[in-house]
Amino acid sequence: MEKVPMTAGGYEALEAELKRLKQVDRPAVIQAISAAREHGDLSENAEYHAAKEKQSFIETRVIELEDKISRAQVIDVSKLSGTVVKFGAVITLVDTDTDEEQVFQIVGVDEANVKEGRLSVSSPVARAMIGKTIGDAIEVTTPGGHKSYEILQVKFA
User: Fold this and answer.
1) 85 and 146 co-located in one domain
2) Do residues 98 and 138 share a domain?
3) pLDDT of 106-137, one tens digit each?
């Protein structure tokens, strides 16, 4: 069984979503299905079919979350240190073409949000940085084209 690396915050977010799905969304959709059944003919009842579709989505997501939580490898970033890029690191990069600086943290797949500066550990940029240190250059092919970066800072928060 393959472990799923994530930060403590990512783990807590998955648990909170699972709790909401089980305690709020699941009962609400069961109520909606029950109410739609009372309207009669189910074959032409759009409310019933929409509620059943939502129920299917909720149940699929619950199974997915329970699987990820059971395989979670929670990494306490506050206990990490050093100058080598690894999971949890906050990296300051400079684009060697534009001199634009960017700051990213390498996080688990479910925590990733590029707009908030969180890169998935499986993204091309994160994979290129892993194992590198301050002053190293990296070359990456992104959806936006070929990019060259230099690592300016590595820290763990």
Assistant:
1) yes
2) yes
3) 999 999 999 999 999 999 999 999 999 999 99
Domain enclosing residue 150, as ranges: 77-155
| Residues 102, 42 share a domain | no
Q: For residue 101, which phi and psi values (nearest 5 degrees)? A: -95, 145
Find, among 87, 62, 60, 80, the residue nearest to 4 by Cα: 87
Answer yes or no: do 88 and 146 share one domain.
yes
Is residue 88 within 8 A of residue 108, CB to CB? The reply is no
Distance of CA 92 to the CA centre of its chain: 20
pTM of the model: 0.81
Domain check: are 61 and 23 in the same one?
Answer: yes
DSSP assignment string, the chain: ---EEEEHHHHHHHHHHHHHIIIIIHHHHHHHHHHHHTTS-GGG-HHHHHHHHHHHHHHHHHHHHHHHHHTEEEE-GGG--SSB--TT-EEEEEETTT--EEEEEEE-GGG-BGGGTEEETTSHHHHHHTT-BTT-EEEEEETTEEEEEEEEEEE--
Choosing from 28, 59, 75, the residue where a domain stops is 75
Angle at which helices 8-20 and 46-70 cross, to 10°: 150
